[in-house]
């Protein structure tokens, strides 16, 4: 597929994926959703990539939401299908075996905030803004936002944000636990890349299993989550990475993981 709205650069085991539609503040239309899904699918299959940074083009927006101009003419059926398409992308990111870091470089609204919430870590620039303005448009968040925001920050704060349609600054997003960290815009990309590279150095299977345990564990009882964790823990003892990681510790050298 010709991904004209998505840029993807891979180096040192890290893929930087940029939503590149700055004239519309990187709004997610059907083409962008399909291209993003296709790009991330390729990254998931690429064993040289160990971590992903997701960001938006320009200095104003990460993603300012789903494309309102495209949605304006949708029928009820098309709206439902559009939400399902977005949700499929969100769930794909959550199920990817590689960590995905959102570098939120401006507005993360509606579908843009939903995209950031699908990521494993959110680093934001000082000019970033978070919000769900959907109710000001007569709709509700449709790419998993009502579910994911509530799980992340709890129902009362989620309701305050979603029912008001209010847009909050990065500092409040940090205070509420939406952003992991807030840094000057000029430092954002390097900060996200630094974390991605740090993650990429570790045993890739272990990092993927840790993500799997945390993401899937959120939907389990604590006991099932414990059982799931110990199963994954056991499986890792069948990997070469476990032999290498523990062997390197015993031999007092740095581990060289192969992702096998
Ligand atoms: N969809 C389509 N186009 C958008 C867009 C969006 N979500 N957000 C911005 N744009 C376009 C604008 O229409 C404008 O295009 P034109 O120059 O052709 O008019 C261009 O991007 C620049 O935007 P503004 O001139 O509006 O920039 P601003 O600095 O004055 O305002 C903003 C910035 C506050 C983010 C404002 O653009 C805005 O409110 N955008 C919409 C935000 C929103 O409501 N997002 C939620 C969408 S619904 C959703 O996402 C549903 C879901 O859960 C799946």
In terms of DSSP E residues, the strand content is 15-25%
Q: Which structural category do the helix and sheet elements fall into?
A: alpha/beta
Which cofactor or ligand species appear?
Answer: acetoacetyl-coenzyme A
> What is the radius of gyration?
19 Å
Largest sheet: 6 strands, mixed
Contiguous low-pLDDT stretches (5 residues minimum) are none
Strand arrangement, largest sheet?
1-2-3-5-7-10
Overall pLDDT metric: 97
Task: Give the SSE string.
Answer: EEHEEHHEEHEEHHEHEHHHH
Shape category: globular
Q: Helix tally?
A: 11
Number of strands: 10
Span from first to last CA? 30 Å
Q: Level of helix content?
A: 40-55%
Overview of this protein structure:
The protein has 260 residues and is of the alpha/beta class. It contains 11 helices and 10 strands. The strands form 2 sheets. It has a 6-stranded mixed β-sheet, with helices on both faces. Strands 4-6-8-9 form a 4-stranded mixed β-sheet. Helix 3 (76-95) runs parallel beside helix 4 (111-118). The longest helix is centred in the first third of the chain and has 20 residues, at 76-95. 39% of the residues are buried. The model has no long low-confidence stretch (mean pLDDT 97). The structure holds acetoacetyl-coenzyme A (CAA). Acetoacetyl-coenzyme A binds at residues 24-25, 27, 64-69, 86, 107, 109-111, 114, 133-134, 137, 141-143, 145. It comes from Geoanaerobacter pelophilus. Pfam families: ECH_1.
